[in-house]
Amino acid sequence: MTPFALIDNLEHLSNPFTQFEHIVTELKDNVPFLNDPDYKRDLQLALCFIYSYNGSQATYNSYRREVERLLLWSWHTQSTPTTQLRRDQIEAFIHFCITPPESWIGIKNVARFKQHMGRRVPNKEWRPFVSHISKLEFSNGDVPVAKKYSLSQAAIRATFSILSSYYGFLMQEEAVHQNPVALIRQKSKFVKKEVTRRQVRRISNLQWDYVIETAEMLAEEDPATHERTLFIMNALLGMYLRISELVADERSAPVMGDFTKDADGHWWFKVLSKGNKERLIAVSDDMLRALARYRQFRDLPPLPTVAENTPLIPKNRGQGPMTSSRQIRNIVQFCFDTTYQRMCDDGMKADAEDLRVATVHWLRHTGISEDVKTRPKEHVREDAGHASMATTDRYIDTEYRERHASGRKKTLRPH
Question: Fewer CB within 10 Å: C terminus or N terminus of the chain?
Fold first, then answer.
């Protein structure tokens, strides 16, 4: 049986601490389990746990995904509330997530709920799991297939982490006596140990030279569309920005006034990053010139004024800031695709291949990787907003270069 969604998007979800009965009333027609007090209590506990993460849309979505999958699996396949699951059943759930039945897998992202006669009702096309394909496969004309669904190692680690937090919450609420996730001793059979340090995904200096030259050419040909493209590309690499730090959301809306000058005349850029933590990024002279060019195109003074509320990245149409990270991805992807074609036309197809699979986040990795070669890594860590120095150390390639240099001397015919 294909299950219905249980938990709506944050903007449509009533407060489960005060309006739980209203939520149950809306769901009962499609979820007969809720006629049983044990399952009803199970849903209430899950909703209260997830709702406590309403300060961040991304975090809420992640916790909802994992806990809702567990609820649906426990109710539909084990005929029991999640509060009564044992350790061996949690292991069975992990196996289920790795190879779910095709009836539980979708091939596109669809809304969980939709409006019907003034009510929010479950969307019958929604599935708990979604099969995806890579950028390269998509560009080659491939389409997602349910039977090719796979769960990444990062996703498995996230499942363990979130469900362990969930059962920790249930213990605090005295709904369970122990955490069955924490009792799983051999997580290694699900989660592989990583190599000492994964290599950072980035574009090469040659590729970046072509990319930024492409953005400049586009801006000259069509400034109304691509002066913004040029600024976005410079900001993503030059200030190591995450895509979420360029768009407006429920937490913040980036404005020109986030560029500030201190008493020494140095410019900084303030962002609200992961974990709702503010950080200041040192703005380079080149980045300041890129900002001045972008502002002059927008008929603004070359540099921002104190507390200026002009949106940093405006919408394509209308007033206000850009709120869609997908639009940023589309802008960057267009620049990558155009650059790839230029490099192929210049006889450098082999050098351009990475651009076919590169994502927006690669620009952040590229900027950090270059700066850590010449700047103190403590400074790079602060600008990047890394929680620990170990994260910044991943970008230092000296050890890899020396290791490979010695490895190149190995012979297939030992003396």
Answer: C
